[in-house]
Amino acid sequence: MIIEPIVFFIVAACFLFFMLASVLRIGLGPTVGDRVVGLDTMNTLVVATMIVLGAAYRQVVFIDVAIIYALLSFVGTLYIARYLERGL
Amino acid sequence: MAVIVYVLFGIGILFNGLGTVALLRFPDVYTRLHGATKCTTFGSIFTAVAIIVYGFSRGGADGRTLAIHTIVALIALLVTNPTGSHAIARAAHRSGVKPAGAVVDKLEERS
């Protein structure tokens, strides 16, 4: 099966555009919760983009980085939620 | 076989775009969380499934390695993403953010 590498780069460019829209929500969200939601969305999109780019460049290391990024961003989100809930 | 990968990529891009539109257009933090988290999780699942199908059908050692690592990344995404959004929603409610246009808050009365 032949898939042109440009297909992967088009998908990654779409995800990059969505990430920029999430950055817009992080910038102008009125409460802290809105900014955290934008950050969470951006983390998910970064993981998806890393998986697609790992297939495009034929580097499995990118997908390992995506696994670690997903777990670390989960820890970060939990800490921000705990801070919102009852302070440090 | 390539058509399956294209269709899965299309579903992934569509749902990630819908999640981003929901993040930009919905009125308060709970509806934004609802739209953005569910749609981006669904779209990322389909993007990862597209890469898994691509890796297994490309064959060879590196193709199978790509597919299996993507399965592990998909499991990590599936476990962490709903848990994080639940924590954000609970923290937003306890920090006193009201839903837009809410008249009563039954969860606040109960606790």
Task: Give a brief outline of the structure.
Chain A is mostly helical.
Quick tags:
heterodimer, A: 88 residues, mainly alpha, Helix Hairpins, elongated, B: 111 residues, 4 helices
Global structural class of chain A? mainly alpha
Measured as a percent range, the helix fraction of chain A is over 70%
Number of strands of chain A: 0
Number of helices, where a helix is a run of at least 4 consecutive DSSP H or I residues of chain A = 3
How many alpha or pi helices of chain B? 4
Instruction: Write down the CATH topology of chain A.
Output: Helix Hairpins
Query: Which geometry of chain B do the CA atoms define?
Result: elongated
- What's the CATH first level of chain A? Mainly Alpha
State the oligomer: heterodimer
The SSE string of chain A, one letter per element, is: HHH
Total tally of structural domains of chain A: 1
Average pLDDT confidence of chain B is 89
Mind describing the biggest β-sheet of chain A?
none
Describe the structure.
The complex is a heterodimer of chains A (88) and B (111). Chain A has 88 residues and is an all-alpha fold. Helices cover 86% and strands 0% of the residues of chain A. Chain A is built from 3 helices and no strands. In chain A, α1 packs antiparallel against α2 and α2 runs antiparallel to α3 (61-86). By secondary structure, chain B is mostly helical. Classes of the chains: A mainly alpha (88), B mainly alpha (111). Chains A and B meet through α1, α2 and α3 of A and α1, α2 and α3 of B.
